[in-house]
Amino acid sequence: MVSNKKRLYVALYPSGVVNNEELMYLTSLILGYHWGFLIGPKVEAQDQIPGVRYHEVPLRNVRSTVNLLARILVAKIEDEARLVEILRSTPIVQGDSESSCITWLADALRRIREDGKAVGTSQLDWARIEPLAREYVAEKKAGGRYGQGADMSLPKPTWDLLKDKEIVA
């Protein structure tokens, strides 16, 4: 029987800081990107691939939103309801300068790993994911993937961390 388990991706977006040069500079040094999760199907054969961006925003096309920079495939989902509950129950800390999308994502990855049932085959080590994702997006930027004239509606670069290879250039 062929498995068609949904996939969990770490997604990188531009940081979103605008109109504040000092904050933009500090954010680029510390965060550089906004980090989140995407859930999508294993097979992405159609032009439009429905999925979900967390915090639970339905997407018409999980492969390509205008501001998505890249996806890193980190897990095969075994129990989506359980995974969603873990993501929903991971606290978003407000008013703490030490808290960010990075700390939330790393905490959620830890909770998923500790749960041991929501995902099957996976690579949930934040110490491996973060530098790989940053380097991957930097390589794509240097290669002009997001430059002027680039078609931002195309499927975004995707790295399969489970197989350690690029699956969408």
Brief sketch in words of this structure:
The protein is of the alpha+beta class and 169 residues long.
Describe what this molecule looks like in 3D:
There is one protein chain. This protein has 169 residues and is an alpha+beta fold. It has helices at residues 21-30, 80-89, 101-115, 126-142, and strands spanning 7-14, 33-40, 51-54, 57-59, 70-77, 119-122, 158-160, 165-168. The protein has one domain (7-168). Helices cover 31% and strands 25% of the residues. Strands 1, 2, 3, 4, 5, 6, 7 and 8 form an eight-stranded mixed sheet that branches. The longest helix is centred in the last third of the chain and has 17 residues, at 126-142. The model is unreliable at 19-29 (pLDDT under 50).
Q: Spans with pLDDT under 50 lasting ≥5 residues?
A: 19-29
Q: Report how far the terminal alpha carbons are from each other.
A: 29 Å
Q: Calculate Rg over CA atoms.
A: 16 Å
N-to-C series of helices and strands = EHEEEEHHEHEE
Alpha plus pi helix count: 4
Helix content: 25-40%
Strand residue content:
15-25%
Structural class: alpha+beta
Question: Which word captures the global form?
Answer: globular
Query: How would a crystallographer describe the biggest sheet?
Result: 8 strands, mixed
Q: Report the average pLDDT across residues.
A: 84
* Tally of separate domains: 1
Question: How many distinct beta strands?
Answer: 8
